[in-house]
Amino acid sequence: MTTRRQNTPNAARRSDASRRAILTAAFELVGEVGYAKLSIEGIAARAGVGKQTIYRWWPSKGAVLFDAFLMLGEGEGGEAALPDTGDLEADLKLVMRATVDELNDPRFDEPMRALSTEISHDPDLAAVYRERLDGPMREIKKRRLEAAQRAGQLAEDLDLDMAVDVLWGPLLNRWLQRTGPLTPEYADKLIETALNGLRHRR
Amino acid sequence: MTTRRQNTPNAARRSDASRRAILTAAFELVGEVGYAKLSIEGIAARAGVGKQTIYRWWPSKGAVLFDAFLMLGEGEGGEAALPDTGDLEADLKLVMRATVDELNDPRFDEPMRALSTEISHDPDLAAVYRERLDGPMREIKKRRLEAAQRAGQLAEDLDLDMAVDVLWGPLLNRWLQRTGPLTPEYADKLIETALNGLRHRR
């Protein structure tokens, strides 16, 4: 339990506890039953709150799930950075292998697919996702690439947003579209191929 | 109308016409109402057939939609090939710009998102998709890259499956996850970045 200021009213404390219970329930449930069968009723039952409590704070199950992902992200802290040992290729392989592990983890796989599905079909949710989750993560990646660019390891005219897409896009698409298994070897080869490019080097 | 062999029974002809009507209805409807609201009832009404006719041939709306995509693909012929002018970069830009146009076309956008969602959540459908749609398209792409590799334009040790992922994965992920607009300029820059790689060339 965290220490709380004395003037925090009990109601606000209860409200915060309910909120966390609801988000945890949504995240667990979507992993167990899938997004299609996720319901506000089910989340309410699992969290031990009334349906109306959920509807007071969120307009839809997609919105609940999205906040559940945000809560997960908060634990990682606002000052997150990718590793920087000076060896860009090794650092990126480490990060990409960790992403492979996460995507292969059954606790994350189904909730993340559910979120991706919602984003694919809902431009408004996609805009919120870009602003609150994808955007900040992208900045963290770009900061690492920028350091490499300053060190002369990346092309001077490289567009860092495109670089992020070329590094992470193939893995995410392979995962979402199930075009092949996600393995550490795939992660390594992806980094090598993106860094070196497809062209024959003369 | 195509010429038919004389011994084709009327029943088989009617059956083929119903099949095509159902698939066309499924494709049109998913674009209008989205996948969540697509129903066997709706497809049957639009196609002018009974629900039981659909259930006799397909177990689910996802299966109907998948066959609708296959029917669409059949029109493109089995001998499809990417352009080969000898200029790989120009040829790939042409292809990638055509993909951008297709993904931006409202007639295709929603049905293709619906199919992607189904694939993401259904490993069995994903396996059929890989075998019957993604696999053949991937072979066509690899054939063009192989020609470039033989011509000494691509790295000798390049894994062509990885090359396909690095070229197309970022665009497909950007489209599905709505991380940014799909433009001809994006298509061009993606090809250039994938071919040249991210590294500074000394």
UniProtKB/TrEMBL annotation, chains A, B:
Residue range(s) of DNA binding per entry: 39-58
Protein name per the record: AcrR family transcriptional regulator
Pfam entry (one): TetR_C_11
Annotated PROSITE patterns: HTH_TETR_2
Keywords: DNA-binding, Transcription, Transcription regulation
Keyword ATP-binding annotated: no
PANTHER family per UniProt: HTH-TYPE TRANSCRIPTIONAL REGULATOR RUTR, TETR-FAMILY TRANSCRIPTIONAL REGULATOR
GO molecular function, one term: transcription cis-regulatory region binding
InterPro entries xref list: Homeodomain-like_sf (IPR009057), HTH-type_TetR-like_transc_reg (IPR050109), HTH_TetR (IPR001647), Tet_transcr_reg_TetR-rel_C_sf (IPR036271), TetR_C (IPR011075)
Residue intervals of the HTH tetR-type domain: 16-76
